[in-house]
Amino acid sequence: MPNTALPIHHKIRWTIIILILAASVIMTLAGIYALKISPTLYFESKVVTLREDIVITRINDQEIDETSLWKLPVFFTPKEERAWWFTQHKIDKILKENEQVVITFMDRRGVTWQIIADVDYMTLGEIVKRLGLVHLVWLIYLVSAITIFRRHPTTPGYISAFFLASSALYLTSLTPVVHRPVFMDYFWLSLLIKVFFVASTGQISMVHFAMIFPKRKKIIEENGWIIWLFYCYSLGISLLYLLEFISLKTTLPLLVFWVVVMLSGLAHSMIKDPDVFMRKQMRMTFFALLLVSTYFVISMLVLWHIEENMLLNIALFSLILPFSLILSLDNQQLYQERIAVEVNSRKEKERIHRELHDTVLNDLASISIVTEGALRFIDQDPRQVNNRLYQIKEYTADSSRQLRNFLWVIDDRQSTWNDVVDSLRRLGYDLLNYQDISFEMEINGDSEDIAQPSPAIKHAIFQIFREALINITKHSQAKHVLASITYGKNVVIVVISDDGVGFDINEVKDNSYGLLNMKNRVDEIHGELVVKSSPGQGSQVIVQFPLK
């Protein structure tokens, strides 16, 4: 039986996807926990939040500038970002050491005032209200990643799943950071932002996707190392940020560059692909990624200290991505399957044409020639006429058998494995019984669990089976023949064994027309043929027919 285990590269891909999704689940719980343990400012039982026209300038004796209230440290230099983190650490310490703090506000006119705020902790209900909708989007991304990889276990499918999984991790780690009221526990804030940054670099996979979908670009075929450049950049930029050699905003120009590369790759496919259907197919993917990436880049250029709903808007708007990717891959797969059906249909027509030409048409030509000979002897030699009439009878019978075989192959009403088995059983009895050779057939497995035979498979099985039995009647001197059909996963194995005199494989395999004919038919359907025999030990023909 064939090995049905998953290939190692597919196992590795599954492992990577599952690890990212598991990290998303962990970071979801971490984000909820971070908000739950973070000191929160309350005034008159309401959470103190930021307003566009009012800023906090002081908490107790700690001065606070506008940048300290940014949701993310969007700075161009590591020095500025470190200063932001230092302020966050000091504020976190103040809130944890006091049950009440004095907050100083200032409006746009420069008017200041103070309130005494209570330091307390948000309830789980308040946290769910803040995070719930974006987490629902994250869940859709998670399910989409698993769905797309199960339905499309190909490189484009894996890349799309990787992108969706990293986007899910991106959303679930960024959401509590952006939706915190004002401040967050220093440790968890640092962890969530670092995870968010690393997850965002994984979205470089969309550039890879644009280079190979719907088909691999010529530049990638000639320079495969370019793909590694994408992921080396992703890994390198992550390490540089974690080691504090670069700041968050430093990567924005490169982000814009990669977005342009991605859209250029998709636009090239949309314009240059010779197939009209694929050009239309690419439009959906191109415009979905264009809209989402443009909105995403613009939002990243805006300071995150004002618009809390920005992330929610991005998350909801980006929901078109998982569905557009799934539809794109589904449509491509359906299109490729349709093309494959058309190619197989054309090959089937060519094969039937060739078979009819080599068998029935040749027989008809022979009948015509023999008939002319019979007419010449009709008044001279009745015995010659009888011989030729007998030949005509044989040719006619053989042609009838060939035509019945072709009609059976193309008959949709006889397209199950049970029909194939019945046909082979009848063939075995017809060819062997009048030679005084007993015939048996065994069936192993369940044909209901596998794909039904295509016309090409039906014809190949029938002809190979017939060829093997004819060889037995001519050469084996066998008394008993046992045939078996075994149904496996995506494969059918046919074995024909006899108890005849056998032969030396090495002496006949190169000059046996019967074996060569069987091998050619097996090669046409990408199957496998094994012939086992030795003098005095009988012979065995094993044929494996793939169903995919």
Index terms:
548 residues; alpha+beta; Rhopdopsin 7-helix transmembrane proteins; 4 domains; six-stranded antiparallel sheet; elongated; disordered N terminus
Structural summary, described in words:
- The protein is an alpha+beta fold.
- The chain has four domains: 245 residues, Up-down Bundle (Rhopdopsin 7-helix transmembrane proteins), CATH 1.20.1070; 79 residues, no CATH class; 52 residues; 134 residues, Heat Shock Protein 90 (2-Layer Sandwich), CATH 3.30.565.10.
- It contains 18 helices and eleven strands.
- α6 packs parallel to α9, α14 crosses α16 and α16 packs antiparallel against α18.
- The longest helix is centred in the middle third of the chain and has 39 residues.
- The N terminus is likely disordered.
Element string (H = helix, E = strand) = HEEEEHEEHHHHHHHHHHHHHEHEEHHEE
Low-confidence stretches: 1-5
The CATH architecture term of the largest domain is Up-down Bundle
Helix content: 55-70%
Number of domains: 4
Q: Strand count, sense and closure of the main sheet?
A: 6 strands, antiparallel
